Amino acid sequence: MKYITGFALIIIVLASCSLENRVASVAKKTIITDSTFLNTHVGLSVFDPETGKQLFGHQSDKLFTPASNTKLYSCYAAMTYLPAKLPAAYITDVDTAVVITPTGDPSFLMPDFKTHPFFDKLKSINKPIYILNNNWKSSALGSGWSWDDYSEYYMTERSAFPVYGNQINWYMEKSKKENPSYPGDTIDVMIYSDPEIEWPVNFSSVKKNEFYVERAIHNNSFTLFEGKETSAVEQVPYITNGIQTGITLLKDSLHKEIRIADEDLEKAVKKFKADTCYSQPTDSLLKIMMYRSDNFFADQCLEMVSQKKFNVMDESAIIKDLLQHDLAELPQKPTWVDGSGLSRYTMFSPNDMVFILNKIKQEQPWERIKTILPHEGVGTLTMYKSNNNNKEFIYAKSGSLGNVLTLSGYLHTKKDKWLIFSVMINNTDMPFRRIRKQINAFLNGIAE
Length: 448
What we know:
By secondary structure, this protein is α+β, with helices and mostly antiparallel strands. Among the domains are: about 20-80 and about 285-445, DD-peptidase/beta-lactamase superfamily (Beta-lactamase), CATH 3.40.710; about 165-240, no CATH class. It has eleven helices and 16 strands. It has helices spanning about 1-30, 70-80, 115-125, 245-255, 265-270, 280-290, 295-310, 315-325, 350-365, 365-370, 430-445; strands at about 40-50, 55-60, 85-95, 100, 130, 165-175, 185-195, 200-205, 210-215, 220-225, 230-235, 260, 275-280, 395-400, 405-410, 420-425. The protein is globular.
C-alpha cells in the first residue's frame, strides 16, 4: 500500500512539473519575450486550485491597474451577501403614510428586465408616499474617475434610489418622407427620449457620422447631433441631484407624488416594522454586469451590500470591511476605491485576482459561477476562442482602460483540468486587438 501511494505521488509530482514547464514555456513565447509587450508592464499568474500551487508567476506580486477586473471583487461581495432576489426597497406603513427606504437597487425600471415588482407595489399604494434620504454616504462619482467622461454611458452617477439606471435613452430613427416639400427633402428624422423629459434640449446643426448626444457638465440639458445611421440609440447619464432627479422622473411614470421624508417621519419609521419588496433575481443582474461589464451595476452592488450590512450605503466603509474580514488573506495589500474599476487609483496584483477567483470557486456552486461569468466568444470575450473546439475554454472577466488591458478567470485544459489565471497589462501603447491575440495564444498554449 505504501509503495502504491508513493508511486502515485511521484506521478502527481511529475505531472505537476510537466505542467509548470509548459506554462512557463508558453508564457515566455507568447507574452514575456514577444515584441508586443516590449515596452509594457506585464503581470502573469497561473494557479492550480486542485493542488493549491502557483504554476507560474511573472511580476505576479506587483500592483497593476485592474480596470474592470475589479468587478470580480464586487461580484464576490454580491454573491456572498445579497439574497437570491435583490431587495428593491424597505416599505414601512406608519398609519398615515407609507415610507420607502431605498437600497440602491440599480435594476429599477431598467429595460433589461421585463417586470418591476417595486413599481407595481408603488402603484398599488393609496396613502401618501415618502422616501428616506438619510442612508446615502457615498458620492455620485467615484474617486479617481475621469471627469471629462461625465456624459458617457459608462460613467453613470451612483445614487441611493436609481431610476431608469440613472440614464436617459435617446433614439434616432430615419424614414422615407411621404410628402417632401422640395426635391432634396426625402428623409424624416425623429429623435426622442425614454423616459420622456422636460429638460432643455438643443439640436446641433453639425452632423456626425454617428448619432451622438452630449449632456452639459453641470445641468440636465442635452445637445443632439444627427448621425448617418438609419436608427441608433445613445445612453446618457443624468445628474441625479441625490435622489431628487429620480423622484421627478418616477412621478411622471407613476402619476403620483413621492416626497422626501422629514425628520419626524425618519423617527417614526423606527417604531414600525418594515416589509422588504424584492425585484430581480440577483444572478440575473450579476450576469448582465459581467457580460457587458456594466460599471453602474458593479458600483451599485457594493452600495447594496453596504446597505445590507450597515443600513447605510457607504462605498468606502464596505470596501474597508471586506478587506479587513473576508479578504484579510489577500496575497498583496491592494488599493481598492470603487466597484467598477473606473478609478485609476484602484490597484490589485495578478495574485490578488487569482485569490478572489479561487475564493469564489471554493465558496460558490460551480454552476452558479459559470452562469454569471462570460465564456469565450461572448460578451466582452469575443476575441478569446479555443483553437481546438474546447467546449469549456474559459470563464473570465476582461478589463480595459486607456493603455490598460486585463483578463482573469478560469481556464479548462484538454486533460479536463481547471486552472485559474490572471493577465494584467499596463502602460501599453499597442493596439488592444494585437494584445488580445497574444493573450489568446497564451491561454490556448496552456490548455493543450
